[in-house]
Amino acid sequence: MATTQLKDPPISKRLAKNIKRNFIEHVIEIILMFAALAATFITLGIVYILVTEASGFFKEVSTIEFLTSRQWSPLFEDAHYGILPLISGTLTTSFIALSIAIPIGTIAAIYLSEFASHKIRESVKPILELLVGVPTVVFGYFALLFVTPLLQKLNPDIPTFNMLGAGIVMGIMIIPYIASVAEDAMRAVPMNMREGSYAMGATKFQTAIRVVTPAATSGIIAAYILGISRAVGETMVVAIAAGQQPTFTFNPIEGAATITAYIVQVAMGDLPHGSLGYQSIFAAGMVLFVLTFLFNILGHMARKRFAERY
């Protein structure tokens, strides 16, 4: 007796299309997951390199001397390994830059978000963001050959290499970052909050300052975090305009070296790999990483606090 074999019913075209679509979406999700994890793996790789290379440095140099000494001359015969001069130069130039960039960037963001017409906004914002595309080495020579001579006309005692000129130009560089991110945060504030403020009799200025700005505080703080990270990590401007003499000072009219300027100075030299002078750049880089990390944590805590409040 012949047996009949049952066949599976054919898959409809619609079902096949859905299966194919789900498969493609699953593949895309995996790709996006790896793309998101890439940043984490890169950060972990950077930390690993810093720690492994700096560990050899700290085997030869006391951590107490490194963190407390005011002399930094690892490339001289009479070597000293105190990081404080580089930290003071980094913090001073960053403070000057942020003192300029934060108020001007915030004011520019408020104007572009609340007061500028659509035509002006679409014209000014791209021009402002063009500053981001200018190479930092150009800003460095702008500080050295233009800003510093102007400062010397006001105070002839200012030396050619000083932290004030470098800090001012760094502030000009950072303005577009703060203005753009803060303006986006203000534009994201719902329009009904503005309309409610107008209905209560508030002026446009009062609405911008007392309603929109507090509501966008979380995004504005994120802009400040970006500006701080940009200032602390700036290299070419300080290397060209602030000098490369590591001096423990917070006087802005004096020259000083920053952590990034020292790393550039050593990286362009001929120090052999594994030498103590070579490993010192990784110790300095680890300090820079920790400073940036701490600033980001503080900014994240402040942003979270204001986000919960508003």
How would you concisely characterize the structure shown here?
The protein has 310 residues and is mostly helical. 74% of the residues lie in helices and 0% in strands. The model has no long low-confidence stretch (mean pLDDT 85).
List keywords for this structure.
single chain; 310 residues; mainly alpha; MetI-like fold; 12 helices
Please tell me about this protein's structure:
- The protein has one domain (68-309): Orthogonal Bundle (MetI-like fold).
- Helix content is 74%, strand content 0%.
- The chain is built from twelve helices and no strands.
- It has helices at residues 13-60, 63-68, 84-115, 118-129, 136-154, 163-187, 191-199, 204-215, 217-232, 236-242, 259-267, 276-309.
- The mean pLDDT is 85.
Q: What does the overall shape look like? A: globular
Helix/strand/pairing class, anyone? mainly alpha
The CATH C-level name is: Mainly Alpha
Terminal CA distance reads: 81 Å
The percentage helix is over 70%
Please write the string of helix (H) and strand (E) elements. HHHHHHHHHHHH
Strand content: under 5%
What topology emerges from the helices and strands here?
Layout: H1 13-60, H2 63-68, H3 84-115, H4 118-129, H5 136-154, H6 163-187, H7 191-199, H8 204-215, H9 217-232, H10 236-242, H11 259-267, H12 276-309
Helix pairs in contact: 1-12, 3-6, 3-9, 5-6, 5-10, 6-9, 6-10, 7-8, 9-12, 11-12
